Structures are given as C-alpha cells and as structure tokens.
Amino acid sequence: MRRIFAEPGDLAHRSFAGHTLLVRDELWVAEVGEGNARWLATESRTARLASEYRPRDLGGGRIEYGHHALDAARELGEEEDGYLTDDADGLRVWIGEDAFELEQTR
Fold first, then answer.
1. Which 8-state DSSP code applies to residue 3?
2. Sign of the four-CA dihedral 80, 53, 59, 105
3. pLDDT, tens digit, for every residue of 47-77?
C-alpha cells in the first residue's frame, strides 16, 4: 500500500521554485493541441475515472495532470493514446506516434 502523506525527508517531498511540495501537490502541463487535449480529457480511458484521476483540458491545446492522473495514465498500455513515458527524454504523453513533453508547473 502506498502512503499518501509523507514525512520530511521522504522521497515524496520535492523542491519547486523554493517551496517544498508533496508529490501529490505537483501539477504537470503539456501542449498537445486542442483536439488532443479535448480527447484526453473526455474520451480517453482515464477520462472515465473519478475527477482526480483524469487529465484536465486547460483550453488552448493544453492538458494538465495532477499526481493521481499521472498514476492512472501510467497504467495505460503502450498501444493506448494517453500513455506516459518517463525516461532520459523527460516525462511525455503519447498520442499516436507523437510525444508531448509534460512540464512541472507546481
């Protein structure tokens, strides 16, 4: 069972812009295009989950993932749109053959 709350010094704490955040407080955004953002937020397999597990369409072709939404998207198979990879190239969301880099905003 994964802990939701972390103690100071745990790996679940990260520093961002001079603030210490729990991993569960992080937000990640990618520019994927308006059609892709709409599809990810409303039609993807994760779009059918509870709101905290869904990616959120921010408008203007941007999609946002919170901690739970990232976890849900990581469960998708490579053949599914919305699949995530996290490697030396960074955290990316895949739609078809296109990869879009996710950037931490908080």
1. -
2. negative
3. 999 999 999 999 999 999 999 999 999 999 9
